[in-house]
C-alpha cells in the first residue's frame, strides 16, 4: 500500500525532516555541529536512547561552560553560534566628558533667569517634556511653581522659584546667598523615571558688596581720619587690612608710594577677608611714604581703599660742605664758608664746635661758619653737633687746613734825626706776610693813618707802632705817621713819614656774593674783585657754555670792561645778565692768571620763577665746539704758564 507524505506512518519521519531543515537554516556555516549529527541527536533524544547509536558528540567549548555529560540542546547551539572567539578583545567604553559648568555672577536680591538647554542621552530624544522636567540645586530637586502662559494658571509649592511650562526656564526671585551653587535641569520619563536628557549646568555666584574697609596695627583698629602713623627707624612694622562683609571675599592689594622706597612683603591674613603687609625694617627713606590697601570686588564699580602715612622718627645725620669746594687749597686771606646740614626727624639744629670749644667766628642760624678772610689760627678740627629727641649726636671731625706763606716782618724806623731812610719810604711784603711800621722815636704820641682818595687820612692805629699781620692785597697803599705838633711841624712830619706798602704774590679773586637768588625776567649783575702783583695777564668769565672776556657782549650777557678796585693792585669785573631765565641757573666762574699763578672765584646763581613772567622758549646755552675749544685752549695755556702741568 502506497503511503502519502502525511500518513500516520510517516509522521515521525516528517518531524525529523522539519527539524533538520530548520536547523540547517538557523545554524551559521562556521558552527562545528553538522546538520546530520544534529538530526541524529534530536531523534536519539526523542526516543530516549543513550550514547550508543553511533552519534559522535562534539567537544563542548570551555568558554560556554557546558557540562560534559549533559545533552546538547538548541540553546547550546545558539550560544555556540553567537560566541566571540577567544582571541577577540572587546574595547572599553570611553568615559564621557562632564559638561563644562558656566558661572553666572548675580547681585543679591536680583531676579535670575536660568534656561533649560537639554542635551539628549544616547539613542534618546531631546524633546522637552514639560510635565516631567525637574530642576536640581547642588543635586537636590527643587520644587518650582509651574507657570502656563497659555492657560494663565500655575501649580507647585515653590514661593521664589517659578518654571515656565513651555520652555522650562527657571526664574529665581530675590536671589539670596543660599541660592549659590550648581543648577541644572533633567527631563525624565514620567513612567519609568529614566533620564531622557540633561540640561547644561550653571553655577550661580551671588554677589554681596563689602560694607567697609579698615587698617589695623598690633590688633588696634586705626582711625580713618588719622593718616599719620609714628614709627621709629629700624623697627618692624606689620599692617593688617580687613574687609567687612562681601561675598565672595574681595581681592586685596597693597601699594607703597613712592615706589623707589624698599617694598612691602604681603601675605594672607587670618581669614579670607583680610591681608597683611610687612616691613622687616623701617628705614628713614620710608618717611612720609603712603601705604594703601585696595579692595576690589565684582559688585563694586570702584575699589575701596584705606591709606596711612608713615611718620618715621630717626636720629640726626650730618653733611658738611665747604666753599670753596673740597680739594681746593685754602690759602690765607681768602673767604671760606663751612656749612652743616642735619637730617633728622624731628628736625634738629646744628651747632659748630672747634677743638671741643667755641668756633672762632659766629655761627649763622642756618648752620654756616663764614670766614671773611681765613687766618692761620683758624686751622683746626671742626665738627657739627646736635641735640635730638633721641639723644645727643655729633658728626665726624673735619680738619680745616689753612696754607700761608712766610713773609718777612719789616720794621720801619726812621733815624734819630727824623729823616727816614730811602728804604723806609717803600716796604714790600708777600701776600699773607707781616709788616711792622714804627713812628720815629723822637716823636712820641704819633699814630698811623692810611692815605685814601684825595689825600684823606683814615686812622689805622692808636699808637706809634703799626703791625699788619697776614697782609692782603687790599691793605697795600700809602701809610702816614701823624704826630701831635704845631701845624708847621705837623706838615713837616706828614711829608717826611709817608710809607708805601707794596704787596706781592699769587692772584686772588674775591666775589662780592658767593650765592645769589634772582627772579625770572629781572636784570642781574655779578661782581668780583681780583688782585694780583705782578699784574694779571689774562682774565675771563666762564659760564656753562661760553667763554667771555671783559668787553664781550652777546644778545643776553654783557661782560663789562675791567675797572679799578679797592687798591692799586685790585680791579673789579662785572658780568650782567640782561634778562634772567631759568636756564641761567648754575655756576659762573671768573678766572685770572698772573706770572705767579692762577686763581678763580665762583658765583652760584639760583633762579625762581615769577608768577607773571613767561617766555615763549627758554634760552638754552648749549656748548658749541668753538666755545669748548676756547675753554680748553685758555685753561691749557694758564696751566702751562703756571707750571701746573
Per CATH, the class of the largest domain reads Mainly Beta
Largest sheet: 11 strands, mixed
The 3D shape can be described as elongated
Query: What is the number of beta strands?
Result: 45
Question: Mean pLDDT score, rounded?
Answer: 75
Structural classification: mainly beta
Overall number of structural domains = 6
What does this protein look like?
The strands form 8 sheets. Strands 1, 3, 4, 5, 10, 11, 12, 13, 15, 17 and 18 form an 11-stranded mixed sheet that branches. Strands 30, 32, 33, 35, 36, 38, 41, 42 and 43 form a 9-stranded mixed sheet that branches. Strands 14, 16, 19, 20, 22 and 24 form a 6-stranded mixed sheet that branches. The longest helix has 17 residues, at 625-641. This protein has 645 residues and is mainly beta. Helix 1 crosses helix 2 (35-46). The N and C termini lie far apart (161 Å). It is built from 5 helices and 45 strands.
Quick description:
The strands form eight sheets. Strands 1, 3, 4, 5, 10, 11, 12, 13, 15, 17 and 18 form an eleven-stranded mixed β-sheet that branches. Strands 30, 32, 33, 35, 36, 38, 41, 42 and 43 form a nine-stranded mixed β-sheet that branches. The chain has five helices and 45 strands.
Q: Mind sketching the topology for me?
A:
Blueprint: H1 11-26, H2 35-46, H3 74-82, E1 102-107, E2 112-114, E3 118-120, E4 133-137, E5 140-142, E6 145-148, E7 153-155, E8 161-164, E9 170-172, E10 181-188, E11 195-199, E12 202-217, E13 220-221, E14 228-232, E15 237-247, E16 251-257, E17 265-268, E18 274-279, E19 290-296, E20 304-323, E21 330-331, E22 336-345, E23 351-354, E24 368-371, E25 380-388, E26 391-394, E27 398-400, E28 402-403, E29 410-412, E30 426-430, E31 435-438, E32 447-451, E33 457-459, E34 465-468, E35 477-482, H4 487-496, E36 498-511, E37 515-519, E38 524-533, E39 538-542, E40 547-548, E41 557-559, E42 563-564, E43 570-577, E44 586-594, E45 597-608, H5 625-641
Helix pairs in contact: 1-2
Amino acid at each position: 500500500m502506497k503511503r502519502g507524505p502525511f500518513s500516520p506512518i510517516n509522521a515521525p519521519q516528517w518531524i525529523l525532516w522539519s527539524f533538520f531543515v530548520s536547523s540547517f537554516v538557523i545554524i551559521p556555516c562556521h558552527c562545528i555541529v553538522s546538520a546530520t549529527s544534529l538530526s541524529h541527536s534530536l531523534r536519539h533524544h526523542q526516543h530516549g536512547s543513550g550514547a550508543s547509536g553511533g552519534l559522535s558528540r562534539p567537544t563542548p567549548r570551555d568558554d560556554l561552560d557546558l557540562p560534559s555529560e549533559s545533552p546538547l540542546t538548541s540553546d547550546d547551539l545558539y550560544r555556540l553560534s553567537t560566541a566571540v572567539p577567544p582571541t577577540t578583545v572587546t574595547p572599553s567604553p570611553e568615559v564621557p566628558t562632564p559638561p563644562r559648568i558656566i558661572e553666572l555672577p548675580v547681585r543679591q536680591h536680583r531676579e535670575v533667569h536660568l534656561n533649560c538647554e537639554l542635551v539628549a542621552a544616547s539613542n534618546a530624544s531631546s524633546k522637552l517634556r514639560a510635565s516631567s522636567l525637574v530642576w536640581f540645586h547642588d543635586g537636590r530637586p527643587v520644587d518650582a511653581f509651574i507657570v502656563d502662559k497659555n492657560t494663565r494658571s500655575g501649580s507647585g509649592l515653590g514661593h521664589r522659584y517659578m518654571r515656565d511650562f513651555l520652555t522650562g526656564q527657571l526664574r529665581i526671585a530675590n536671589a539670596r546667598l543660599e541660592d549659590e551653587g550648581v543648577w541644572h535641569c533633567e527631563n525624565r520619563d514620567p513612567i519609568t523615571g529614566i533620564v531622557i536628557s540633561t540640561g547644561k549646568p550653571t553655577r550661580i555666584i551671588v554677589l554681596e558688596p563689602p560694607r567697609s574697609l579698615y587698617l589695623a596695627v598690633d590688633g588696634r583698629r586705626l582711625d580713618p581720619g588719622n593718616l599719620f602713623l609714628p614709627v621709629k627707624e629700624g623697627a618692624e612694622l606689620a599692617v593688617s587690612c580687613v574687609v567687612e562683609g562681601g561675598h565672595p571675599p574681595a581681592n586685596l592689594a597693597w601699594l607703597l608710594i613712592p615706589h623707589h622706597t624698599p617694598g612691602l612683603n604681603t601675605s594672607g591674613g587670618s581669614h579670607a577677608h583680610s591681608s597683611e603687609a610687612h616691613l622687616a625694617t623701617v628705614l628713614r627713606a620710608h618717611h612720609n611714604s603712603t601705604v594703601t590697601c585696595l579692595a576690589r570686588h565684582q559688585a563694586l564699580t570702584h575699589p575701596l581703599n584705606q591709606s596711612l602715612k608713615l611718620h618715621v622718627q630717626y636720629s640726626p645725620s650730618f653733611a658738611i660742605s665747604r666753599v670753596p669746594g673740597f680739594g681746593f687749597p685754602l690759602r690765607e686771606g681768602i673767604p671760606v664758608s663751612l656749612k652743616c646740614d642735619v637730617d633728622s626727624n624731628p628736625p634738629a639744629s646744628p651747632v659748630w664746635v672747634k677743638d671741643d670749644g667755641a668756633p672762632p667766628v659766629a655761627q649763622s642760624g642756618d648752620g654756616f661758619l663764614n670766614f671773611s678772610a681765613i687766618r692761620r689760627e683758624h686751622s683746626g678740627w671742626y665738627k657739627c653737633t646736635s641735640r635730638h629727641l633721641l639723644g645727643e649726636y655729633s658728626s665726624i671731625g673735619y680738619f680745616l687746613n689753612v696754607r700761608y706763606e712766610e713773609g718777612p716782618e719789616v720794621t720801619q724806623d726812621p733815624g734819630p734825626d727824623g729823616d727816614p731812610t730811602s728804604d723806609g719810604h717803600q716796604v714790600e711784603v708777600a701776600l699773607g706776610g707781616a709788616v711792622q711800621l714804627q713812628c720815629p722815636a723822637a716823636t712820641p704820641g704819633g699814630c698811623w693813618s692810611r692815605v685814601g682818595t684825595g689825600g684823606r687820612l683814615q686812622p689805622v692805629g692808636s699808637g706809634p707802632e703799626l703791625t699788619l699781620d697776614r697782609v692782603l692785597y687790599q691793605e697795600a697803599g700809602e701809610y702816614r705817621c701823624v704826630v701831635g705838633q704845631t701845624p708847621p711841624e705837623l706838615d713837616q712830619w706828614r711829608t717826611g713819614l709817608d710809607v708805601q706798602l707794596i704787596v706781592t704774590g699769587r692772584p686772588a679773586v674775591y666775589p662780592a656774593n658767593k650765592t645769589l637768588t634772582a627772579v625770572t625776567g629781572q636784570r642781574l649783575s655779578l661782581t668780583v674783585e681780583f688782585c694780583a702783583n705782578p699784574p694779571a695777564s689774562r682774565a675771563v668769565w666762564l659760564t656753562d657754555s661760553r667763554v667771555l672776556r671783559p668787553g664781550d657782549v652777546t644778545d643776553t650777557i654783557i661782560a663789562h670792561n675791567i675797572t679799578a678796585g679797592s687798591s692799586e693792585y685790585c680791579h673789579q669785573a662785572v658780568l650782567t645778565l640782561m634778562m634772567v631765565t631759568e636756564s641761567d641757573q648754575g655756576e659762573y666762574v671768573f678766572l685770572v692768571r698772573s706770572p705767579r699763578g692762577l686763581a678763580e672765584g665762583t658765583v652760584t646763581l639760583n633762579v625762581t620763577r615769577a608768577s607773571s613772567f613767561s617766555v615763549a622758549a627758554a634760552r638754552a646755552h648749549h656748548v658749541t665746539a668753538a666755545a669748548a675749544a676756547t675753554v680748553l685752549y685758555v685753561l691749557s695755556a694758564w696751566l702751562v704758564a703756571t707750571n701746573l702741568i
